[in-house]
């Protein structure tokens, strides 16, 4: 094997545990099971990162990276001390540290160069195409999750109990595709990534996830503007043409999509029950925080305090069914807003430390992006994935198997923004 090829293979070997986390999310989800194969792979990735850190003769993280990922530990630990039960404290502490500290650090350490970063990005794109393809098939065959009395909602392998799972995966894949297309001058990668992004439009639409639509539109628009106004105009025109063909020409989900889009603006004027529930829980989260402004009500304590702060407008739960599962009523256990969830459970301390670390990471990533002309094929999608998470957190919070991808996205952004010795600009062999 030629020496450049050997170098390329060796450069991607450390990142394979991260790729495994992404790939294993393509497996069907067992209803009611807390841990998934992707979670096990994330533990392996953390272990590999620990081994890598031990083998180094220097500190694995820069001082800035240590501060950025050390801040959330403070807020999370204090909130865990105020949890209602010991079980909630342990479970909440483990999940928060896994998603917001351990997995991002593991990705930061295991992604050594642009070759490894591109592999992770393309694996995200491949997962999105896989889940999106399953979702489109569910819509066309009427085997998806129940939506307005018909089993047409595309949910992929995540099932009706996690309707946001496929929407999250497809959205992240689209952001990665747009970033890969805009950040390279290689014609083949531009064409392939653009084709993948256009292909993901349909499953994203059929997910009927308003929050994912908003976050994806804003993030992709931001990436396009970063790449240039002329290119942004061209891409917007292409996307509009595809949407007209899919919805106007073939009528794919036209009525349901129109109703779902209209419901976004119906906050005060005849909103549907899901909108009423969301804003009621937002108000309840704010009321919890007002009673415990500094440290919140405790980690995973929102369900225990919900009924004491929510108005009578809140329904008893959401109805789920279809996609191979029986009808059930699923309780509403979170405000579906990550910032309000942190504020209610962890108070101002948690918001400043946890959300503050995300903001610091975004600022460092954007500053480095502005100063560099190289590695933009990795920089743009890394910044885009982080931005998508921060926007989507306005309409969702952590929960479900796809949550582990939040840690992967934070890790990719950290690799770009905080890796030592200019690692993001390194390349394994000639391109």
From TrEMBL:
Q: What is its main location?
A: membrane
Q: Spell out the Pfam families in the cross-references.
A: Wzy_C (PF04932)
**Superkingdom of the organism of origin:** Bacteria
> What is the membrane topology noted in the UniProt record heading this document?
Multi-pass membrane protein
Compartments in which it is found: Membrane
Q: Which residues form the O-antigen ligase-related domain?
A: 196-354
Gene Ontology cellular component terms for the protein in this record:
membrane
- List the keywords (alphabetical): Ligase, Membrane, Transmembrane, Transmembrane helix
Q: What GO molecular function annotation could you give as one example from this UniProt entry? A: ligase activity
**Membrane spanning stretches:** 12-29, 35-54, 66-87, 93-112, 119-140, 163-183, 190-206, 212-229, 236-257, 347-366
Q: Does the keyword Transmembrane apply?
A: yes
Q: What's the protein name? A: O-antigen ligase family protein
